[in-house]
Amino acid sequence: MKIENIELYNLSMPFISPFKFSNGELLNHTCLIVAVKSEGLTGWGECPVFTQPYYTYETIETAKHILQDFLIPKLLGKTINSPTEIRDLFAFVRGHNMAKSALDCAVWDVFAKAENVSLSTFFSQFLFNSYDNISRKDAKTQSLIVDSHNFSLSNTRDKVKVGVSVSLTQDIDLLLAKVEDFVNQGYQRIKLKISPDWALQPLQAVRKKYPDLMLMADANSAFTLDDLPLFQKLDDLNLIMIEQPLAYDDLLDHRYLQSRINTPICLDESINSVHDTRLSIELKSAQVINLKVSRVGGITNALEIHHLCQQAGIKLWCGGMLESGIGRATNLHLASLPNFLLPADISATNRYFREDIITSPIELNPQDSTINVPQNVGIGVEVDEKMISKFTIK
Hints:
Elements: E1 5-21, E2 24-38, E3 41-47, H1 60-75, H2 85-89, H3 97-114, H4 119-130, H5 139-152, E4 159-161, E5 164-166, H6 172-185, E6 189-193, H7 200-209, E7 214-218, H8 228-234, E8 241-243, H9 252-260, E9 265-267, H10 274-283, E10 288-291, H11 299-312, E11 315-318, H12 325-335, E12 370-372, H13 385-391
Parallel strand pairs: 5-6, 6-7, 7-8, 8-9, 9-10, 10-11
Antiparallel strand pairs: 1-2, 2-3, 4-12
Helix pairs in contact: 1-3, 5-11, 6-7, 10-11
């Protein structure tokens, strides 16, 4: 498959309401959208970076630079025989996983469309028939993949359990009203953003009102080991996990914290590669990993991480980056894989946007807190290019 044309769009989409977290507040979803074209087909990918380096060092401007000046020139005009080739093709650029992921996902979308199947179906078919095409340099990683190959590669779901993330809300009454609204909509798992000065009280208030709710906390790396007494108090709240409580690049201190508390620790920002995953498994740094395709550099890496964790007994769930419908649809296909055992952060479109860049909104099934995995070819949603034009800055 020859890559004939690549288009890059810089979008800004207004949120219905501001999204607050420990490092700041967002009024708009800023992202880069790529359209990769080959043989009459278009594959779509999203780079959900912020204008400031809140989450990783990548920003809109750095990702745009890496895409325009390095990655797109490397891919344009190339003949690609497998979507897994993208990982090696881009290996000359260190880091910049979100920029890489946008093109990687778009190429996977093109290949699924060429096979006339949905992306999740393509995952199953591709993994079963040709997972050996993935370049592996580490014998241990290879053995884990081969061991898991026999029992996990062909099972995908047609709908995904999901939850919702509640931004930092430093007013108990307002917080409880937000949670009540989401519970009434049908969400059965709630994630609260917390900060060092606002952690125990909001979690206690929500747990008191909803004793059986699947409840978790997201710390966004805002705490240290000095906060151990706080985390030990959180053990009493029956949380399903605490997400990334310590430094964004740490594995060692998380190991210590996990050994001192009962609540499962989930790693997010600390897991940027297959290698990070192997280290966290060996160190026993966490019981759960939040797998974001954009954070780990694309679908090929995400699939390998999925099977490493499945073999090691580490639970996965699919995190979100407040994506548009393009990234949201891609996440749904990834989350359909069998080791995604906890509800994903893939809320319905109306959680964030009044208008999206796909023609049909992604909707919650309120009876069981699920979202259907799109079944049309590729990522399974139709992109509304008029809406892309509306929200395009450049």
